[in-house]
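ARCHIVE RECORD
Type: protein–small molecule complex
Small molecule: magnesium ion
Source of inputs: curated submission
Record status: active
Notes field left blank by submitter.
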Amino acid sequence: MARHKTAYVCQNCGAAASKWAGQCPDCGAWNTLVESIVAATPTRAAGRSAAAVGGSAVRRLHEVDAESAPRLASGLSEMDRVLGGGLVRGAVILIGGDPGIGKSTLLLQMLAAVEGRVDTLYVTGEESLSQVALRAKRLGLPRVDLPALAETSIETVLAAVSATRPGLVVIDSIQTLYTESLDSAPGSVSQLRECAAQLVQHAKRTGTTVILVGHVTKEGAIAGPRVLEHMVDTVLYFEHDPGSRFRLIRAVKNRFGAVNELGVFAMTDAGLKEVSNPSALFLSRHEQPVPGSVITVTRQGTRPMLVEVQALVDRSMIGNPRRVALGLEGNRLNMLLAVLHRHGGVALGDQDVFANVVGGMRITEPAADLPLLMAALSSFRGRPVPTDLVVFGEVGLAGEIRPVQGGEDRLSEAAKQGFKRALVPEANKPRRGTKLDIEVIAVNRLDQALAEIQ
Ligand code: TYD
Ligand code: MG
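STRUCTURE (tokenized, with ligand):
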């Protein structure tokens, strides 16, 4: 096969060099030279071929056929939820996650679930076919005769894909693929980008759905999935709490649906099982009310979910008290403690404050502000918050309680899970006439909220 001309291109300024160097001779950035393919007659040739297929004419948007293509259900409803309703033709999906978290298991189960509705191909560069077959058997998949290919050369993979024309291709993993036109080792940034680019091109041209597996790695010789995020349509990350059997799959980018959408699975000895009512998972359900624990309703994408926020406030033994936040933002915790001091009149300056979200959940939205403050205060005073109460709301620097998105969804989820009372921002109070099976206590200011739990 003909070798392409390659050059070392700086990822910072775009300068090209013929040899690798530690520092870019042009902009002076370190470690930015990456081997890349240089096309012989780049722009002009590409422009001509696009014009020939009629793809580059200027058109008005309303004339463009924007009929949404029917989505292919993946057979796993939690997966469909994060994908925004199923697999889209021609989409490229990247699934990232730590090694051993269950990416191969999930995709094998998904391929078995779509079996019969679309032709598939499972390309494995990591395991031998007998290992894959053994896993499929262990998973008790209904049919173990899925088409599979053990290959690491992108040229061979694309040839096989062109020959068999599957509608869904899984590449496990993109880091094991390499192209013969580059000298660098499989897994390096340039190999990763080039292989992914060829697969994306194939997907767009033929309408094949491609799923790429990417291992999240420590920075080093092997590049992680982050370098591919801009090239693909959808980026999903698999997360888990060490030691827990639950697996969360989160959409961080999706051209075909909402981001931050969350799917929940549990790893069992027969593979991943869907958890369709995850609210119960993130609550500890204490027998007796305990200080420092507050239940909140967080929204992950479009799904409201109940989670328990815990805080432990204890006298500090060191001069500089510790502030530790797990699953929550550390800076926000500091800011909230300042608001609690200034507007709530509670000084925690000589106390260590630890905050945690139960079950390894990560909350990035401000709706957890008020519950976090109440948990801290409850722990500080040693007085529990009632167990039938849920709390949500953003806390502003002026001590005001600000509304959050999707208030009614959150309230109805709390009511569904059997909570009797909700402490919420005034503006999130349901409109009159809305029937909700929960008593709503609406507050405007932090001191009002704190007065509710005296
Ligand atoms: P795997 O899908 O190989 O992870 P990845 O492809 O993300 O590297 O998952 C491997 C882990 O899952 C392994 O530690 C064993 C566990 N596992 C189960 O607990 N039950 C099962 O049925 C299977 C297939 C795997
Ligand atoms: Mg794997």
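CURATOR ANNOTATION: The pocket of magnesium ion (ligand 2) is lined by residues 103-104, 126, 172 (CB under 6 Å).
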